[in-house]
Design a protein that fits this description.
The protein is α+β, with helices and mostly antiparallel strands. The protein is built from 8 helices and 6 strands, in the order E-E-E-H-E-E-H-H-E-H-H-H-H-H. The protein has 3 domains: 88 residues, Ribosomal Protein S5, domain 2 (2-Layer Sandwich); 42 residues, no CATH class; 140 residues. A 4-stranded mixed beta sheet has the order 1-2-4-3. A two-stranded antiparallel ribbon has the order 5-6.
Length: 287
């Protein structure tokens, strides 16, 4: 399921921004980018995303913009720089060399310039965390809104299959007499009416018609459709369950079509299959 959410918060020290985007995926694929100063919090954030987002190809960006740009500015260890500079000049004098760039050399030596990246305090973490939950709340609301639209569409298509099943029953009453008449007419033309053993004919007809009976398929299909509707109304994440139910619906519809032996019923079955394919496509967007 796609989703988007952005949260922002400003304090006296900084502005915090968290942006979450997701695309469809069977599993949770989380790409998390956060400031280095909070790298130790990555595992906690990943666990929260696993628990609250569940599925999707998710890109999450957490950013901090400090109001005072000097907060995280580089700092020079002046005493260490002086020591390096003096040593470089002394070595140059001893070797009789003229060093024009002694200061530049000293600046590039270890530990002269330090970046204060690990100075975030607990208040900063609390501000960033509240921004994270704010973005996550908007992200979930986006998903809820999309889910409501998908649910309406799925309910309509599921009901369409049930309505088509009612149409099948209208043609079913005339189906068996038509099959009986067709077989009887074929026998009379082939072997002659006087040569047909009526008792044997009735026995074979009962066996044949029993093979074409679609009562069980209708009962199971209706049951699957009702269970599908019930699962749709559940508050749990039922994407996989709905997928399994739709597979069972497909099996019953296919069997119904193969047993129909009736042009009108087979046309109705084609319509059922079209609705079911659209249901399966939409289920890829369901958690």
């Amino acid at each position: 399921m796609t989703g988007f959410g952005i949260g922002t918060k400003e304090s006296a020290k900084a502005k915090y921004t968290v942006e979450i985007k997701s695309l469809n995926s069977k599993y949770l694929e989380l790409n998390l980018k956060l400031p280095k100063v909070f790298s130790e919090k990555e595992l906690f954030l990943r666990n929260e995303c696993t628990k609250l987002i569940e599925r999707g190809k998710v890109n999450m960006l957490l950013n901090i913009e400090y109001t005072d740009t000097t907060v995280n500015a580089a700092k020079i260890d002046t005493q260490l720089l002086k020591n390096y500079y003096i040593q470089i000049k002394n070595v140059a004098v001893e070797l009789g060399e003229d060093v024009q760039n002694a200061l530049a050399l000293a600046l590039n030596l270890p530990d002269v310039i330090n970046y204060d990246e690990d100075a975030a305090d607990e208040d900063e973490w609390k501000d960033l965390l509240s921004t994270f939950y704010s973005a996550l709340e908007k992200f979930q609301q986006f998903r809820d809104d999309e889910g409501a639209v998908l649910k309406t569409d799925l309910v309509k298509r599921n009901q369409s299959i049930l309505d088509s099943l009612e149409e099948v029953e209208k043609f079913e009453t005339s189906r068996i007499p038509m099959i009986r008449e067709r077989i009887n007419h074929y026998l009379e033309e082939t072997v002659g009416k006087e040569n047909v053993d009526r008792n044997r004919f009735e026995q074979e007809l009962i066996y044949y018609i029993d093979k074409l009976d679609i009562t069980e398929e209708k009962v199971r299909l209706r049951s699957h459709c009702e269970y599908f509707a019930k699962a749709l109304n559940s508050s749990d994440a039922n994407g996989k369950k709905l997928g399994f139910i739709s597979q069972e619906m497909g099996r019953e519809i296919n069997t119904l079509g193969s047993k129909a032996n009736n042009a009108q019923i087979q046309q109705i079955v084609v319509g059922m299959k079209e609705e079911l394919e659209k249901i399966k496509e939409q289920l890829l967007n369901i958690l």
